[in-house]
Hints:
By secondary structure, the protein is an alpha+beta fold. It has helices spanning 16-30, 79-89, 91-110, 143-214, 220-255, 276-284, 286-289, 291-312, 347-414, 419-454; strands spanning 117-123, 134-142, 317-326, 332-340.
Amino acid sequence: MTIGPAPCRPTVPFRPALAIGAIVAGAGLLCACASYRPLPLPAQADLRASPAELKVDIARLRGTPLRSIAIDPRDGLDPLEVAALAVLNSPDLRARRAALGVRSAEVFAAGLLPEPQITAGVDKPVSGPDTQTAYSLSPSLDLAALLARSSSLSAARFTARQADLDILWAEWTTAQQARQLAETALADEMRASYLERILAAAAERYARSSQALQRRDVTLQTTAADLAVKLDAESQLASARQAAAKARRDLNALLDLDPRVLLPLVEGPPPAPLAPQAIEGALASLPERRPDLLALQAGYRAQDAKLRQAVIAQFPVASIAYAYAKDPAGTTTQGLSAVLALPIFGIKAAEVRLQTATRAQLLAEYQARLDQTQAEVRAAEAELAASQGQASVLGADVSRLQALVEPALKAYQRGDIDSQTYLTLTQNVLARRADLDDKRLAARIADIQLETALFLPPTTSSPAP
């Protein structure tokens, strides 16, 4: 029997270095590389120097209640127009909108499949009996990431929706804040205008009284009463001017305007009262309409997805890998390996507990916001009714007192009444008029707060310009 060499099978020569190079080159071609571009920080403020520089593109308004507002700066800006301008020009809102790009990138990243990895190696013998070059190839896949992809993508999408709704709610509240500031500035400026007339008359009377005192035509008590009226008017005028200036500065900050810019504010149409049934209907539908409640709902669903992701992460097989190798002796092997996570210390179970507790916390926060919303609506209703009622009473009082001022002044000049009576009457008129202005402003603010809480478009008794 002749023993000869075993027949050889034709094989294709394998060049490890060439194979590894091809793998690296292929990976480089498949990856789209992004380039770096510097983005320097600004060196100075970029406030607008004129109302003409404000953006007025109302097509960019997203909030449904704001879409009915038309902006026409040619005849001045009423509080409703200022509200829309605040949404379009607020620097804080601009920064928050820029953050939406981060959420969009997170959704994109969450939707990507886990990238497979390839481990490659080459060993060339330099001494010893074996002379063949050894090599190994081992592709692997992250199973845990693949299983969690669906939940991770769902959580990222809900988180992005929550961020978008939060911005929508911020736009609405910013608009209403600007509207309140405009109403406040207008009310304080109107009060200041009234007080300027009172002060001018009081200053003239005090000047005449001082001259008469020097001639000994009047008593010191009379001159002191005239001075007290003048000082009282000066004090109230200074307070009104200061309040109006502060409201304007705060409003300019919302609009990204230089604090020195004087916005051409004008009175808008008076608000129309909301019917009780309209309030109840709007309150009942708030969970389906109000952006902050919808944002909390999206956040809860995102957390629910994170909880599912934590449950899936308990799957013990973390990754699998296929291995193909040849050693220096020429032995070729192939195999399959897996990485197992052993739940000995309960780390995965602890993560499930954490995500469960977080979901319960978000549920409680949502219920608290619902309760707070109802309380805000009822408080605004009560404040509106009380302020309107008090303004009605004060309006009648002021009318009666003002009707007495001119006859009282003549009687005081004739000496028919003393200075104390005249001083008391004048101070009562000023105090009642100040109270009336405060209650009227409080009613307007309460009306805005009610619309804010109900997420309803501004109601006016006549069409907005």
